[in-house]
Amino acid sequence: MNLFRTTLLAAAAATAVLATPMAMAQGAKLKVGLMLPYTGTFAALGVAIENGFRLYVQEQGGKLGGREIEFVKVDDESDPSKATDNVNKLVKRDNVDVIVGTVHSGVAMAMAKVAKDTGTLLIVPNAGADAVTGPMCAPNIFRSSFSNWQPGFAMGEVVAKKGHKKVVTITWKYAAGDESVKGFKEALEKGGGQVVKELSLPFPGVEFQALLTEIAAAKPDAVYTFFAGGGAVKFVKDYAAAGLKKSIPLYGAGFLTDGTLEAQGADADGLFTTLHYGDSLGTPRDSSFRLAYAKSYKLQPDVYAVQGYDAAQILGTGLAAVKGDVSKKAEFAAAVQKAKIDSPRGPFTLSKAHNPVQDIYLRQVVGKENKVVGIASKGLTDPARNCRM
Ligand code: BEZ
Predict the structure, then answer these.
(1) What is the per-residue pLDDT across 123-181, written as a single tens digit (0 to 9) for each?
(2) Which of 149, 190, 221, 338 has the maximum number of C-beta atoms within 10 A of its C-beta?
(3) CA–CA–CA angle 199, 205, 207 (5° rounding)
């Protein structure tokens, strides 16, 4: 081989290497930034989401779209004031290919802003902030969970149908609580009921006594609530201890009793909630998921585990279509948009705003289970108000 030809071949090889995107370089792992709460009232929720995500990746042999997965983790502490710094660390310092997070709506909104500004792929595995698939919607932002409006609206219809006219609401004063109550109120009013008092306390407070006294004095027909994690455990126990469970029926978005029943014990018995998952679906898909989860983690899965699992399914669907090249954003989004996600909750699709279109179950606590007793709302689509995409 002459010198000229050797030089040409070397130049061609160098060009080929340069043309290969960094992220796709031979054998490069796909970096997933997990931004979740690992401390505080939502710590168990963060762990369940990570477990679910890892389970799906493990079932795919450790690879999605042909690329091995590497995790970088940040504890967001459910603290919105640290959220922008935390997400910027993942995007700018760690150069992650995709961010998966989080639980808390206020933190998720800061993440969505950074994702929108930088074009980084974001999959939200819990936080229901309506804005994420509303005014902040974007081609690179997806949600595997729900909007806060969805379980709230479904429960408003249930409570109205039960004939309750005057309802008091109680929740944490932040996006998730406010939006859950708003969805509930919208459906309740449509059904002829009204919210007579809206009570709240700052997140993640658990000093419920004064508010429970107000509920007792107001004597409503029913109470609607949004609490989750450690706060939900304490609220259900305090509600029963105040003697209210016997006199004023308590309803909630399903987070009130999901992943919490061991700790709530008999105080949760009989409670009705609405959610996109339940413990007794009994479908082959859910049964095999539950078995695999229990085998891997020696724990029963909950809604958060399912949402983590489905976040990985969404990522896997998009990556398969682009052969692992996350820079092909339009093709990634188109593939996810037309997919049916084979979730343990039941199959779902994503709306144009990238939020699940899904059945919302009516569940009742029986022992240690959120038993599905019906479908409160079939194929419920979030209205995606002010999403322009
Ligand atoms: C939220 O902040 O969006 C949220 C937190 C826990 C459970 C459900 C929603």
Answers:
(1) 999 999 999 999 999 999 999 999 999 999 999 999 999 999 999 999 999 999 999 99
(2) 149
(3) 70
Q: Three-state SS across 279-295?
A: CCCCCHHHHHHHHHHHH
Measured between alpha carbons, how far is 230 from 239 in angstroms, rounded to an integer? 14
Q: How far is the centre of ligand 1, averaged over its atoms, from the C-alpha of 104 (Å)? A: 5
Span from the CA of 208 to the centroid of ligand 1 (angstroms): 19
Domains in the chain and their CATH numbers? Answer: 25-146+281-354 (3.40.50.2300), 149-275 (3.40.50.2300)
**Measured in angstroms, how far is the CA atom of residue 10 from the centroid of ligand 1?**
55
CA 120 to ligand 1 centroid distance, Å: 22
Which atom in ligand 1 lies closest to the alpha carbon of residue 304?
Answer: 7
Tell me the pairing of strands 67-75 and 30-36.
parallel
- Beta-carbon neighbour count of residue 178 at 10 Å? 20
Nearest-CA residue for atom 3 of ligand 1: 127
What would the pLDDT profile of 27-78 be if each residue is shown by its tens digit? 699 999 999 999 999 999 999 999 999 999 999 999 999 999 999 999 999 9
Partners of 364 in the β-ladder: 272, 371
Q: Which residue among 102, 103, 227 is best mutated to probe the pocket of ligand 1, counting the most ligand atoms within 8 A of its Cβ? A: 103
pTM: 0.94
Cis upstream peptide for 20 (omega within 30°): no
| Beta carbons within 8 Å of 41's beta carbon, 6+ residues apart | 78, 204, 228, 229, 230, 231
Ligand 1-lining residues (CB < 6 angstroms): 42, 103-105, 126-129, 148, 176, 228, 255
Taking the CB of residue 46, how many other CB atoms lie within 10 A of it?
30
Given a contact cutoff of 8 angstroms between Cβ atoms, the answer to whether 186 and 316 are in contact is no
